[in-house]
């Protein structure tokens, strides 16, 4: 476990007092499950002697400012009259932690989501009930080499990946003295179904499909701040995958994507409203022979520049489920990527063999950088 000393722990609240209100949560929000997703950024010192590298004062002040337009992030959960979760916009804030570590950036080498790396993302205490914990907890850790990490634990029912990166982009812009560029669209009732539907309603590949784009009609605002990502599932018989060409697997995925049109997605929303306890994901979904792939290739993950340079890496900040994978662009914009994947040891050996056979791989120190 990485050793660090906590120097400060404070709840950062919005810079302005806002009217207290409740935000209705869609079935897409609620099916994410009770989990704070760990994510971590690493930064090398930029060599600028005129500015204090990752000044906590700058970070806290800009965070307080960005929480004004993104005010649901500073709230807490509560239950409405029917027992359904909603966001109580009470302005209680997000947890901000400052820590120092004797470790070096080099100690994390390939940024594998190990327990050591996970420890840099704050742990969440759920024991006090749903109204007791922040939606976002973050820790800025200063390493002895001058590098810095920003570790986050963020409530997945409040934001999905596009919404999280939207928040990060606007916060980092404000840290550099810029105004907000794309205000968040906070009305989640666009995913409220107009009706209820009847309750009646093999290897599996799960992957997210973003409903913000052209699939839903009318198209949700591009700055919609909530969960707009649906989980798609492609199925195939193992023997078919083994005996048929690669295009067969690709065609199964393509067929699933074609099916995810407006009618299908609206039907999914209706179903989730009628079945509120439907579980979106979890460790049991992705174990062999199933799999999940999440691509962040189109996310602005390296735009979180707080004024001291862009991150050198961004990825999952802790252990991930077996059978779950992330595809992440590298920071040098050459088309190369990181693949973060969790498999059993024997499965990993087979996967690496097949992966290298299907890709052109260039070694990068003790990493492998692939062009697909």
TrEMBL record:
Keywords: Acyltransferase, Transferase
Pfam families in the record: Transferase (PF02458)
Coiled coil: none
Taxonomic superkingdom: Eukaryota
InterPro entries: CAT-like_dom_sf, Plant_Fungal_Acyltransferase
Keyword Metal-binding part of the UniProt annotation: no
One example GO MF annotation: acyltransferase activity, transferring groups other than amino-acyl groups
Family: Belongs to the plant acyltransferase family.
Descriptive protein name: Transferase
Source species: Trema orientale (Charcoal tree)
């Amino acid at each position: 476990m990485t050793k660090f000393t906590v120097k400060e722990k404070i709840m950062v609240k919005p810079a302005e007092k806002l009217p207290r209100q409740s935000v209705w949560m869609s079935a897409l929000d609620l099916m994410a499950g009770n989990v704070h997703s760990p994510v971590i950024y690493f930064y090398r010192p930029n060599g600028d002697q005129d500015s204090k590298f990752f000044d906590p004062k700058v970070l806290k002040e800009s965070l307080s400012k960005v929480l004004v337009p993104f005010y649901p992030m500073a709230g807490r959960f509560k239950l409405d009259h029917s027992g359904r979760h909603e966001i109580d916009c009470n302005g209680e804030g997000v947890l901000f932690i400052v820590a120092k570590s004797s470790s070096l950036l080099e100690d994390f080498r390939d940024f594998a989501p190990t327990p050591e790396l996970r420890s840099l993302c704050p742990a969440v205490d759920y024991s006090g009930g749903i109204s007791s914990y922040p939606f976002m907890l973050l820790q800025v850790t200063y390493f002895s080499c001058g590098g810095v990490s920003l570790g986050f634990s963020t409530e997945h029912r409040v934001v999905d990946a596009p919404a999280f990166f939207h928040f990060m982009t606007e916060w980092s812009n404000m840290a550099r003295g810029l105004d907000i560029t794309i205000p968040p669209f906070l009305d989640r009732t666009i995913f409220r179904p107009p009706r209820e539907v009847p309750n009646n309603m093999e290897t599996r590949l799960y992957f997210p499909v973003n409903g913000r784009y052209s699939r839903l009609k009318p198209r949700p605002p591009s700055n919609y701040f909530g969960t707009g990502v649906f989980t798609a599932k492609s199925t195939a018989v193992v023997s078919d995958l083994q005996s048929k060409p690669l295009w067969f697997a690709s065609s199964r995925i393509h067929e699933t994507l074609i099916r995810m049109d407006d009618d299908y997605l609206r039907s999914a929303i209706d179903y989730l409203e009628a079945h509120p306890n439907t579980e979106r994901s979890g460790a049991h979904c992705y174990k062999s022979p199933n799999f999940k792939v999440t691509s962040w290739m189109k996310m602005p993950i390296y735009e979180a520049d707080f004024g001291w340079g862009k991150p050198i890496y961004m990825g999952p900040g802790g252990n991930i489920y077996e059978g779950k994978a992330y595809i992440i662009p590298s920071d040098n914009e050459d088309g190369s990527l990181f693949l973060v994947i969790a498999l059993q040891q024997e499965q990993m050996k087979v996967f690496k063999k097949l992966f290298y056979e299907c890709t052109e791989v260039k070694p990068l120190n003790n990493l492998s950088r692939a062009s697909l």
